[in-house]
Every structure is written in C-alpha cells, then in structure tokens.
Amino acid sequence: MKYAQEIRKVIFQLKPQSIFVAEKLYREKLSILPEATFYKTLERMIHKNEISRIGKGVYSISEITKFGIIKSNPNEIINTFIGETQLKGLFIGYQLYNRLGLTTQISKRIEAYTTVIQSETKTIGSNKFYRIRIRLNPSVIKMIELMEVLEHYEKIEDLNIRRFTKYLEESSLSFNEKEFEIVLSNLKYKKRTIALLRSFLEYKGHKNTLGKYLSSLSNYHLPDVKEWY
What we know:
Largest sheet: 4 strands, mixed
Strand content: 15-25%
Helix content: 40-55%
Distance between the termini: 69 Å
Radius of gyration: 22 Å
Structural class: alpha+beta
Number of strands: 9
Number of domains: 2
Strand order of the largest sheet: 6-7-9-8
Order of helices and strands: HEHHEEEEHEHEEEHHHH
Number of helices: 9
C-alpha cells in the first residue's frame, strides 16, 4: 500500500492533462520500487479515471471539470516529446517541410524524432515518434533537418523549388562536418542523399570530405543541381 501511495504521489505532482512516459517516469523517479507494482498501480488509476492510456506506455493525467473528464491536450504531446525549445526532439515530415516554406501542404499527423522514449518508436493516435540518441542543440537539429529534406525532397508534394534551393544555399553556409558526423553516426541516410549534399556543396564552392562516405564506382543517379536554378 505504501508503494502505491508513493507512486500516486509522484504522478499527481504532474499537472492535469500533462503526459508521461511510464518507463521514463519509473526509471527517473521510482526505480527503487518494484516495477510490477508500479504498472499495477497505473492500471488501478486508469480504472478510477485518474489517468488514461493514450499510447503504449504513454499516459495522461485526467482533469475533472464540470463538463466531464479531460484526458489530454494536443499541445502537451508536443511539449512532452519535442519540448517548447525543441531540445527534446524535432519535427520531421510535413510539419518540417511546411515550416521551412518548402510546401503549403500540411498534415494533422505528427512525425518527430525524440530523445524521451527508450523504445525505437512510440505511436500515439495517428502520431509517430522515433527514438534518437543524439544530444540535441540548435546546430545539430538544423543538420538533421537538412538531411531529412534531402532524403525526401522528391516526395514532397507541391515542392517550392525556389524556396528549396534557397534553403539549401542557407544551409550550405553553416555546414559543419563535425555535426554531420554526429548525425550520421546515429541516423541512417541513403548514400545518394550524402552524394547529393556533396554535389550541392561543391556546386556552391564549399570544400568537404563527404566523398569518404561514398563509393567512387557509383554516380548515385544524381540530378544536375544547375537545373534547379
């Protein structure tokens, strides 16, 4: 009973409608208690409508109002897995492409990398989060965003090619190979994507050593970047 009380005490320190990842909460604040007791307590709290399960291993604190029980706030999902300053994670997919002005297309489905989860992926409703093992900072985030855009640009609906080339030009000015290596050691990108990045950097006159990641026997079927202008 004392275990359950301690678990409830820790959980209710969180504000109503906030979201927590069970494995993370247990590891950081309750690991001295039996794990089985922790999860049994969560199940009891669900039955009492004190919390709700919104995804596998992901829960929200219920808020009781005169209009009924409010289980979660979409903004809390973003705050939990990405953070207000994006240092927990970052958007990928159409949230990213739209923010960069590459397309006017939007998606209600969130896709993001996050440092918060221990499993490789986490699904909450239609939203998908992928584990990333990189200590994030603004420069590393920009490098990941660049690689995501280059990896998928041919599939972006209604791609604004002028904004796309402008974005690549801006990114090339701050390109840092050390940050590139950090990203590449943790995330997998196609050799063709790396070759395309090298091709654009060379076209803009930026020296680099990205050739060490590539085979000299392949041309990777690259587009002629001059045709983008």
